Task: inverse folding
């Protein structure tokens, strides 16, 4: 992407990548541990948090999934990013 990413929140490490959501946006970023310039942005669908924005992610290594939620979200979503 070539530009600094501001307001990263809730960093998680899955053993290969560092993951972070961007506060007050639907974006989740994947950062390669050994090369922080290698960043990939994912945009979560609106149904993940209708009426709000996701504000937290948590890695579950046993299941190989992320849990995604936010302050105005009514549910906790399971997500896999590729």
Result:
């Amino acid at each position: 992407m070539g530009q600094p990413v501001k307001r990263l929140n809730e960093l998680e490490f899955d053993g290969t990548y560092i993951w972070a959501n961007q506060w007050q946006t639907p974006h989740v970023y994947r950062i390669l541990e050994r090369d922080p310039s290698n960043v990939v942005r994912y945009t979560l669908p609106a149904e993940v948090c209708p009426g709000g924005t996701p504000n937290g992610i948590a890695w579950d290594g046993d299941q190989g999934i992320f849990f995604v939620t936010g302050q105005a979200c009514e549910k906790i979503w399971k997500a896999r990013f590729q």
In short: The chain has a mean pLDDT of 85. The domain at 8-79 is CATH 2.40.10 (Thrombin, subunit H).
